């Protein structure tokens, strides 16, 4: 029942308590006609929303629940990604709590690309391509024989089976270099370790070249790897295996077994090779089996399967003819007579029946006729083989230079099957692989029902469940199987996987989408379905219900808008909206379980379910006259089986049958299109194949009322559609006052004429484009939504204005017009009565048609046809019309169906014939005649099962329809669904509790399985490189977001980078995911706190929409210019020359804008100015969709001295088109703004309409012209001449500014650092400008936003924008960043601040049921701030979300509910789960029984200092200190600081206290300034510095990345690769070949692979497909050419070395001091698991920083060593400035890092570290603790000295935490 009114306090408590109880709580829902009710919906249930058409169901389900759920989740995506998704309007609801991410499964089909198929939509294709890559058998394309891939085991088996007890050589081939001397060649072979070589069947030793006399004529020689006498002994087998395996490696996949006498040679290849045909085929890979991947897509059709070419089916128009009878039409003329003879002759030889109709030939015979024998058609013709119809056309194509041939070919051209791939979409290589005897395209073409049968067959079972198969194969089989079952269960078994998605009906599309969502296995998601039973026969409805229950039982909430009785009865909860329609609906009339009652209620639904109200069956059926029928004979289209059927006329006929049985084909393709063709009418598509249709002379008009949309134009209204508005306007024009004024009926049109509102052009509202939010529509401020000008509204008809008439409901309007004694009024009433007859009396006359529900739209379309015949009966001799309806009950409630049936019967009573396609049992029961198709769908359908009255259909046992009619007749009102089997209850319930991962093998994970609890705080930890990020991000996040995106529309998915499926067998119970990663870009030189958090984006939007422009000169609000003043200004300008008058149509908006050009052309605008260029409106070429464009209409071209009258008229029109603004374009290109909206009353300066770009300092529209948006004046200007474009010059400038140091910047005096121009600075809201607001801190900005006040329209516009700003500011404050200034440069932020800004930006979505994956959120956080962060994360968990946090921090691990520890080592030694569960520390037990390094670390605490004592501090007067005085930057204010030389110093303090400012803003610049010779440009932020002369150099190690391309690797960055290359160049073979060190570089030409350029990968690009990187086929990812890879150093080539881990390389290079020193440093900093050649782009932030640390240490050591060599024996130490080096480090790695830092100090260097890690602090010799707080409240030294001294400080925020560590 409706919720009762409660007090505000009670309501708030109820909502919050409902939310916490796991309910979705809505308060005051007011969307559209909803009446502000409150609603609590249970989660995890199947909920049905029902009610009469127009009652408000969709407003609640889609426009409120779905819109809010998806809007909140999409907001967690990047702004770039968000712009491509459907922008959801914010619903009219006061509060929404506890809503999970939402996915809509609607009826519509918006797919337009043929690339999308049923297989791609459901994800089945993705699993099939993996299955084919893993399990498919290879076959030779020539002989179709199986190809078996060879491996050492198979070679051994062959040798022992066939050559046992015989002596053989195991050999491999190597090429012989051209023109090489024999001695050199033998020397080369010997240097490679080869002992014996076979030349011309003779064996020679490589160390005895003199034994060979002569030349080597062959291009290859055989190297003998081993000589073995074969036996089956274990020892012999082992030796044989080693010889074969080594030979395969050295022989590049090929080996030979040779008899000792060289009489026989057996060759073996690891490649897929057919020995019989001597050809090799390409190996299987997942990409090869995807037509959406350039690797697999057919290059000719690019994976579409169709090309523009010869349509072979057009050459066979009548397939009932045989080959002899001339089925191939082109062969019947003189040109093709010879081909006909060839065809008959070859067919006889092949055994093809030449007298059987072509249609009845087998598929293989048909293909033979069309495509001929395999091979070249020309060659086939020459040897007498059949070349195919395709070959005939190919021959003709070569003669297309002749006109008559081109004309002939044009008859057969169309979009047709690709001749290259024959519609398979794939390359021929993919067709060489088969599963269960079928290749992939053959499987795609099977009906799903047949596919499922094969998938369950014994052969499939043997293939997929073989014990030798890996688990992946079993999982993939199950995924395909489950999706096929889902499709079959929802009644789609007749579809094929290659069926184009664009060809699916709305109902089919919805059910395919439903199975996709089921296959995605998401949990904690709200699925909103729109009448999924549409198009389903009652037989299939029970299976649909089971599928929806599965979705619910998986842990989701399923909300269904539905009218189908069985679905309603199956629901867990019913929500009934009513009681009436339109304005009479919108109330919650019932909520609760479905129940029956004997008494009437407010709920129409319950009354019908209870049997209180029923749809009456006619007492008597109409008589069927056999002489008055449409007789269809030989219907064969699609799946129709050459059927004959009679359709009686003058009665109500229903065509029914199971889904896919052929109903639409019969009615649409056969009946409607053929009848229209007979009558000379043109239809969109060709008619279906039928022999004859007789009886059509007995009908009048043929009217199709289908499901196509009525109108997308809001100007179309019910009164316009039914034609009544014309008479209403005439009535108004006859009012005496109107006649006196001379106005015609057009004056009262809101679609044209002068009477409509000039501002909104008769719309009644204006669209406000919000850019970052959904566009909103506000009432026109001029007409207040009335559509007309005030002058029109003064005229009244019987006291009502034209606006008031349009506001009347249909019922009220009928009463009103009947009261008028006028024939026109009578016509209005008659037209409107038809709306009442179909139950639409509640609609308003002026309601836009695009706001109507589906049911309302279809009934209005019916009314449109009824109006043509009015209400009079057809005369005896007149012909009645045939009205065809396609599922007219779509979207209709029981009560609406009752009304509709009365209309149908009335139509028949008037002499018309009504034919409906329908599944609804009430409609079928009320019909006179039923045609039942079946028995199944697809190929098993297309037959007539039964015809007759409903009673006769019930008697037919074969008819599914009959069974359900019988059930309804015997148990009216009791249509209950079957109970669902609970076979998977336990498995499904597990999804509610856990995320389960099975068989994870991504990266270094070792096939792990684990469970993560829902709604808990889980920490994933382990050593660096143990696999934490792989588990959290590459599996959990990637899979969670991929599944959510897969469940969204295909349109939305195409704009988002699709994540690859990770290497994991199974992930269950996974909710939608949001990632908050560590790798946060700080942006360029223009990025600020407000831009990174998007606050500034919304501020720009706010100021553009509700700001007031002030004149920069006069400081007064600008006013509108009068028409007279504009005219005067224009005349003055024209005195000096010509000019063009422009009207702005589009201002900086993305899109194609073809609609704008079309509209302009209709307005008489012939020319446009598009982005500064003049183009014609006619033939307008669409623009780039995702670039901003500006378009102006050229309204007039003025000549010098033109007359003012024509100027005045043109200006008036231009200002009207430009909505108050026009432009005058002078001949010199200068534009003058003319505005009736904005001009200064003092100086007359005009301003353009406010736009968000005006406030952007990244755009020329808004930036300060002096500093170009930096706030600082750069010392360099863009060099435009050196660049191809202005943009590239500006990008170079921005990169330079981003890298520029403080010494190179000066404050811009023009804008005073505000970055924006004067016009933007003078736009104000409540007396504050955007630059002043940006100057505030976060906390101060919150206070200011709270004080902003708006009225009227501004209040509506600003509501959502200010909420977004306030929310983002509040979250920044909650994570401890309230002190930050909004305009603070992002480059000055600390790592901790950057991370928390990202976190704050993501936490504002207020979602429930989401999995948040965080990457070390405590980075850069002081222990005090860490506690605050953990509280925030706990709140997020308590709201019903799951958290997975990758973290090493002790307090975070202790706070967790669940711990997963990966290890036990790093890299290849990691990837195992060594601990799982809640952390329990038992010191004795833990140390003995656990492999977990984390548990061990917690059980055995480290005692500090590790070395037992600290270094003594130098005396103050000794000169052993760095002294800086007067440090002033950011929050440092005249600070003096001392740092001991030769010691380990730690800078500590709360986040934002000034640590980074001191290190990066003072110490580094101060040392750089003393080292630099050019000190003139230095802006010193300090007074003096001492002690700098004690150092050779200062090295800063920050958190910036070390490389942006795959060419940068750890080895290249630390320069060790240079030494390795030098070492390879010293190998003897390198010297012989003349290879220097550069030859071994993969970055330069010479030694690298030329195919991939040293990348190891190749970029594949193809139109319409995403760019793909694949392994280089030439070098197999090795990066180098074969010659380079032949150079070995201690048995390893250069590629082998680059693939070594750092730990392995330490062992390999232990005798090379120049290499081992650097490698050991990398290993000791915890990076031993990285490979030397790992691309830098794949490194984490912590890994990159430690590599940088090693590089700087080695650089410093090199400088110090150089200084000593030069005789400088003093001051050879370095100063190392290191920022948070423990990022990403496990506690064990921290201990190793401490040793490295101590070693540096022991060498005499000084190390200064910013750090929050307490173990590092506890090891310091000296601590400088800053604070006491952050921002302005920080910047001071609170405590300093040894750690023990800092403990005693009462002001220090660090002391308390440090004490816990030291006093352990």
What does this structure look like?
The structure is a single chain. This protein is 35% helix and 18% strand. By secondary structure, it is α/β, with parallel strands linked by helices. A 6-stranded mixed sheet has the order 5-19-20-3-21-22, sandwiched between helices. Strands 10-9-11-8-12-13 form a 6-stranded antiparallel sheet. The protein has a 6-stranded mixed sheet with strand order 27-30-31-25-32-33, with helices on both faces. A hairpin with an 8-residue loop joins strand 21 (573-578) and strand 22 (587-592). Helix 5 (124-135) runs antiparallel to helix 17 (471-489), helix 24 (725-733) packs antiparallel against helix 29 (823-837) and helix 47 packs across helix 48 (1391-1402). The longest helix has 25 residues, at 1741-1765.
Task: Name a few traits of the molecule.
1864 residues, alpha/beta, 6-stranded mixed beta sheet, 6-stranded antiparallel beta sheet, 64 strands, 35% helix, globular
Give the helices and strands, then pairings:
Layout: H1 8-20, E1 23-29, E2 37-42, E3 46-50, H2 57-74, H3 79-82, E4 93-97, E5 102-105, H4 118-122, H5 124-135, E6 137-139, E7 146-147, H6 152-162, E8 167-175, H7 182-191, E9 196-199, E10 202-205, E11 220-229, H8 234-250, E12 254-259, E13 265-269, E14 272-274, E15 279-281, E16 306-310, H9 337-350, H10 363-371, H11 377-382, H12 388-397, H13 403-410, E17 413-417, E18 433-434, H14 440-444, H15 448-455, H16 458-464, H17 471-489, H18 506-520, E19 526-530, H19 538-553, E20 557-561, H20 565-570, E21 573-578, E22 587-592, H21 604-609, E23 629-635, E24 643-648, E25 652-657, H22 663-678, E26 692-694, E27 702-705, H23 718-721, H24 725-733, H25 736-741, E28 765-768, E29 776-779, H26 790-793, H27 802-806, H28 810-818, H29 823-837, H30 854-869, E30 882-886, H31 894-909, E31 913-917, H32 921-926, E32 929-934, E33 943-948, H33 950-955, H34 960-970, H35 985-993, E34 994-1000, E35 1008-1013, E36 1017-1022, H36 1028-1046, H37 1050-1053, E37 1064-1068, E38 1073-1076, H38 1089-1092, H39 1095-1106, E39 1108-1109, H40 1123-1134, E40 1139-1149, ...
Parallel strand pairs: 3-20, 3-21, 5-19, 19-20, 25-31, 25-32, 27-30, 30-31, 36-51, 36-52, 38-50, 50-51, 56-62, 56-63, 58-61, 61-62
Antiparallel strand pairs: 1-2, 1-4, 6-7, 6-18, 8-11, 8-12, 9-10, 9-11, 12-13, 14-15, 16-17, 21-22, 23-24, 23-26, 28-29, 32-33, 34-35, 34-37, 39-48, 40-43, 40-44, 41-42, 41-43, 44-45, 46-47, 48-49, 52-53, 54-55, 54-57, 59-60, 63-64
Helix pairs in contact: 5-17, 6-8, 10-12, 15-17, 17-18, 18-19, 24-29, 28-29, 39-47, 40-42, 46-47, 47-48, 51-52, 59-60, 60-61, 60-62
């Amino acid at each position: 029942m409706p919720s009762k009114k409660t007090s505000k306090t009670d309501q708030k408590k109820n909502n919050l308590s409902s939310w916490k109880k796991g309910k979705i709580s809505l308060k005051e829902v007011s969307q559209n006609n909803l009446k502000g009710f409150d609603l609590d919906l249970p989660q995890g249930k199947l909920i049905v929303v029902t009610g009469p058409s127009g009652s408000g169901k969709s407003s609640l389900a889609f426009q409120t629940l779905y819109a809010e759920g998806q809007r909140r989740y999409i907001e967690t995506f990047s702004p770039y990604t968000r712009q491509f998704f459907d922008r959801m309007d914010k619903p009219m609801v006061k509060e929404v709590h506890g809503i999970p991410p939402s996915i809509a499964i609607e009826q519509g089909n918006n797919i337009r690309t043929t690339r999308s198929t049923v297989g791609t939509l459901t994800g089945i294709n993705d699993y099939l391509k993996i299955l084919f890559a893993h399990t498919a058998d290879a076959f030779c394309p020539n002989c179709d024989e199986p190809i078996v891939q060879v491996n050492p085991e198979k070679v051994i088996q062959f040798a022992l089976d066939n050559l046992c007890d015989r002596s053989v050589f195991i050999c491999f081939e190597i090429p012989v270099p051209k023109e090489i001397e024999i001695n050199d060649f033998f020397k080369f072979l010997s240097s490679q370790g080869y002992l014996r070589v076979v030349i011309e069947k003779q064996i020679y030793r490589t160390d005895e070249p003199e034994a060979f006399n002569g030349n080597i004529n062959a291009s290859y020689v055989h190297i003998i790897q081993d000589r073995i006498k074969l036996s089956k002994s274990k020892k012999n087998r082992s030796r044989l295996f080693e010889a074969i395996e080594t030979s395969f490696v050295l022989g590049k996949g090929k080996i030979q077994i040779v008899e000792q006498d060289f009489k026989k040679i057996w060759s073996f290849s690891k490649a897929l090779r057919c020995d019989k045909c001597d050809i090799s085929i390409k190996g299987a890979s997942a990409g090869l089996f995807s037509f959406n991947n350039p690797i697999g897509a057919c290059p000719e059709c690019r994976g579409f399967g169709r090309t523009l070419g010869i349509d072979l089916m057009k050459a066979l128009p009548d397939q009932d003819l045989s080959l002899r009878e001339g089925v191939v039409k082109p062969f019947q003329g003189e040109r093709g007579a010879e081909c006909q003879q060839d065809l008959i002759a070859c067919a006889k030889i092949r055994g093809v029946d030449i007298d059987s109709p072509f249609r009845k030939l087998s598929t293989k015979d048909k293909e033979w006729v069309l495509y001929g024998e395999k091979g070249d058609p020309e060659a086939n013709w020459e040897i007498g083989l059949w070349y195919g119809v395709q070959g005939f056309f190919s021959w003709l194509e070569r003669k297309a230079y002749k006109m008559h041939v081109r004309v002939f070919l044009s008859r057969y051209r169309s979009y047709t099957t690709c001749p290259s791939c024959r519609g398979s979409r794939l390359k021929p290589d993919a067709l060489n692989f088969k599963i269960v005897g079928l290749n992939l395209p053959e499987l795609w073409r099977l009906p799903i029902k047949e596919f499922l049968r094969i998938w369950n067959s014994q052969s499939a079972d043997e293939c997929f469940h073989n014990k030798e198969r890996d688990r992946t194969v079993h999982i993939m089989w199950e995924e395909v199987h489950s999706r096929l079952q889902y499709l079959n269960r929802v009644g789609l078994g007749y579809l094929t996987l290659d069926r184009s998605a664009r060809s699916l009906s709305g109902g089919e599309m919805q059910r395919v989408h439903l199975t996709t969502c089921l296959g995605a296995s998401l949990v904690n998601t709200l699925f909103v379905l729109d009448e999924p039973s549409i198009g389903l026969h009652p037989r299939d409805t029970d299976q649909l219900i089971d599928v929806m229950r599965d979705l619910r039982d998986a842990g989701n909430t399923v909300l269904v808008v539905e009218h189908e009785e069985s679905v309603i009865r199956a629901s867990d909860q019913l929500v009934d909206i009513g009681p009436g329609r339109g304005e009479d609906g919108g109330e919650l009339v019932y909520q609760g379980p479905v129940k029956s009652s004997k008494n009437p209620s407010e709920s129409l639904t319950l009354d019908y379910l209870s049997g209180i109200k029923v749809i009456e069956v006619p007492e008597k059926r109409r008589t069927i006259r056999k002489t008055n029928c449409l007789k269809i004979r030989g219907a064969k289209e699609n799946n129709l089986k050459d059927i004959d059927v009679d359709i009686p006329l003058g009665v109500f006929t229903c065509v029914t049958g199971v889904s896919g049985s052929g109903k639409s084909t019969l009615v649409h393709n056969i009946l409607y299109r053929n009848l229209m063709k007979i009558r000379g009418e043109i239809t969109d598509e060709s008619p279906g194949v039928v022999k004859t249709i007789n009886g059509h002379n007995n009908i009048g008009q043929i009217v199709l009322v289908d499901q196509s949309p009525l109108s997308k134009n809001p100007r179309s209204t019910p009164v316009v559609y039914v034609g009544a508005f014309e008479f209403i306007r005439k009535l108004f024009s006859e009012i005496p006052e109107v006649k006196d004024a001379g106005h015609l009926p057009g004056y009262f049109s809101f679609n044209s004429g002068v009477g409509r509102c000039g501002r909104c052009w008769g719309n009644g509202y204006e669209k406000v484009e919000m850019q970052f939010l959904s566009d909103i529509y506000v009432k026109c401020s001029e007409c207040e939504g009335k559509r007309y000008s005030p002058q029109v509204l003064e005229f009244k008809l019987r006291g009502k204005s034209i606006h008031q008439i349009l506001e009347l409901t249909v019922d009220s309007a009928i009463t009103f017009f009947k009261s008028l004694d006028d024939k026109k009024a009578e016509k209005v009433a008659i037209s409107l009565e038809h709306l009442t007859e179909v139950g639409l009396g509640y609609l308003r006359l002026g309601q836009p048609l695009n706001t109507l529900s589906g049911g309302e739209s279809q009934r209005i379309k019916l009314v449109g046809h009824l109006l043509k015949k009015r209400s009079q009966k057809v005369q005896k001799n007149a012909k009645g019309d045939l009205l065809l309806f396609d599922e007219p009950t779509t979207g209709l409630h029981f009560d609406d169906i009752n009304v509709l049936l009365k209309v149908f019967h009335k139509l028949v009573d008037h002499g018309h014939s009504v034919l409906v396609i329908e599944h609804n049992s009430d409609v079928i029961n009320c019909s006179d005649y039923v045609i039942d198709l079946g028995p199944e769908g697809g190929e098993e359908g297309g037959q007539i099962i039964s015809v007759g009255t409903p009673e006769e259909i019930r008697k037919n046992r074969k008819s599914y329809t009959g069974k359900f009619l019988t059930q309804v007749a015997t148990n009216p009102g009791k249509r209950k669904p079957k109970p669902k089997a609970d076979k998977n209850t336990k498995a499904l319930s597990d999804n509610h509790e856990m995320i389960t991962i099975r068989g994870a093998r991504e990266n270094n994970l070792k096939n792990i399985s684990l469970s993560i609890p829902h709604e808990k705080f889980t920490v994933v930890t382990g050593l660096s490189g143990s696999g934490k990020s792989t588990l959290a991000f590459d599996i959990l996040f990637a899979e969670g977001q991929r599944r959510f995106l897969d469940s969204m529309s295909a349109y939305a998915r195409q704009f988002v980078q699709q994540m690859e499926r990770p290497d994991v067998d199974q992930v269950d119970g996974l909710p939608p995911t949001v990632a908050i990663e560590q790798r946060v870009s700080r942006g360029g030189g223009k990025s600020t706190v407000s831009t990174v958090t998007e606050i500034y984006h919304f501020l720009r939007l706010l100021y553009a929409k509700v700001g007031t422009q002030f004149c920069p000169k006069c400081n007064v609000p600008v006013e509108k210019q009068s028409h007279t003043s504009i005219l005067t200004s224009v005349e003055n300008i024209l005195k000096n020359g010509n000019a063009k008058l422009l009207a702005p149509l589009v201002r900086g908006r993305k899109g194609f804008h073809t609609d704008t050009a079309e509209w302009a052309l209709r307005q008489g605008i012939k020319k446009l100015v598009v982005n500064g260029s003049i183009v014609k409106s006619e033939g307008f070429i669409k623009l780039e969709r995702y670039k901003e464009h500006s378009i102006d209409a050229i309204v007039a071209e003025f000549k010098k001295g033109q007359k003012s009258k024509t100027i005045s008229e043109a200006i008036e029109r231009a200002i009207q088109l430009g909505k108050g603004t026009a432009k005058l374009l002078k001949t010199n290109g200068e534009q003058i703004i003319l505005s009736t909206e904005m001009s200064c009353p003092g100086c007359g300066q005009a301003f353009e309409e406010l736009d968000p770009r005006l406030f952007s300092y990244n755009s020329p529209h808004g930036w300060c012209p002096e500093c170009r948006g930096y706030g600082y004046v750069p010392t360099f200007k863009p060099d435009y001449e050196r660049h191809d474009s202005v943009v590239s010059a500006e990008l170079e400038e921005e990169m330079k500014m981003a890298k520029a140091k403080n010494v190179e910047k000066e404050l811009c005096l023009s804008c005073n650092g505000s970055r924006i121009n004067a016009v933007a600075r003078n736009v104000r809201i409540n007396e504050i400008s955007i630059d002043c607001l940006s100057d505030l801190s976060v906390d101060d900005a919150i206070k200011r936003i709270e004080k902003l006040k708006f009225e009227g329209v501004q209040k509506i516009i600003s509501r959502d924008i200010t909420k977004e700003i306030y929310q983002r500011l509040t979250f920044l404050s909650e994570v401890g960043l309230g002190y930050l200034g909004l305009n603070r440069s992002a480059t000055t932020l600390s790592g901790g601040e950057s991370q928390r800004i990202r976190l704050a930006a993501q936490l504002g979505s207020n979602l429930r049921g989401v999995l948040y994956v965080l990457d070390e959120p405590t980075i850069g956080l002081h222990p005090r701030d860490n506690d605050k962060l953990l509280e925030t994360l706990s709140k997020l968990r308590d709201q019903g979300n799951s958290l997975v946090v990758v973290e090493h921090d002790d307090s975070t691990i202790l706070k967790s509910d669940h711990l997963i520890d990966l290890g036990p080592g790093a890299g290849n030694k990691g990837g195992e789960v060594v601990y799982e569960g809640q952390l329990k520390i038992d010191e004795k037990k833990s140390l003995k029984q656990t492999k977990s390094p984390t548990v061990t670390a917690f059980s055995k605490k480290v005692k500090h200092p590790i070395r037992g004592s600290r270094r003594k501090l130098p005396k103050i007067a000794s000169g052993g200190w760095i002294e800086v005085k007067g440090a002033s930057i950011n929050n440092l204010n005249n600070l003096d600081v001392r740092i001991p030389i030769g010691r380990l110093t730690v800078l500590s303090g709360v986040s934002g206290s000034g640590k980074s400012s001191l290190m990066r803003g003072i110490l580094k610049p101060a040392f750089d300034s003393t080292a630099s010779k050019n000190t003139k440009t230095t802006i010193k932020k300090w007074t003096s510095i001492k002690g700098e002369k004690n150092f050779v150099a200062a090295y800063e190690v920050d958190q910036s990345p070390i490389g942006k391309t795959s060419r940068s690797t750890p080895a290249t960055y630390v320069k060790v690769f240079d030494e390795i290359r030098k070492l390879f160049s010293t190998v003897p073979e390198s010297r012989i070949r003349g290879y220097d060190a550069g030859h071994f570089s993969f970055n330069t030409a010479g030694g690298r692979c030329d195919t991939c350029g040293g990348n190891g990968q190749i970029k594949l690009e193809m139109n319409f497909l995403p760019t793909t990187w694949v392994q280089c086929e030439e070098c197999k990812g090795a990066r180098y050419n074969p010659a380079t890879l032949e150079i070995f150093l201690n048995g390893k080539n250069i590629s082998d070395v680059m693939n070594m881990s750092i730990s392995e390389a330490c062992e390999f290079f232990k005798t090379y001091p120049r290499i081992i020193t650097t490698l050991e440093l990398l290993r000791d900093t915890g990076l031993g698991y990285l490979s030397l050649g790992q691309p830098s782009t794949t490194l984490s932030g912590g890994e990159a920083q430690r590599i940088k640390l090693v590089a700087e240490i080695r650089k410093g050591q090199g400088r110090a060593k150089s200084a000593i060599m030069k005789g400088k024996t003093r001051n050879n130490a370095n100063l190392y400035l290191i920022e948070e080096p423990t990022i990403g480090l496990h506690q064990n790695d921290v201990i190793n890092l401490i040793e490295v830092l101590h070693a540096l100090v022991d060498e005499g260097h000084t190390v200064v570290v910013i750090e929050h890690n307490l173990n590092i602090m506890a090891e310091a010799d000296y601590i400088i603790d800053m604070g006491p707080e952050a921002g302005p409240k920080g910047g001071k030294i609170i405590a300093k000295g040894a750690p023990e001294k800092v403990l005693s400080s009462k002001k220090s925020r660090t002391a308390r935490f440090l004490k816990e560590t030291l006093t352990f």
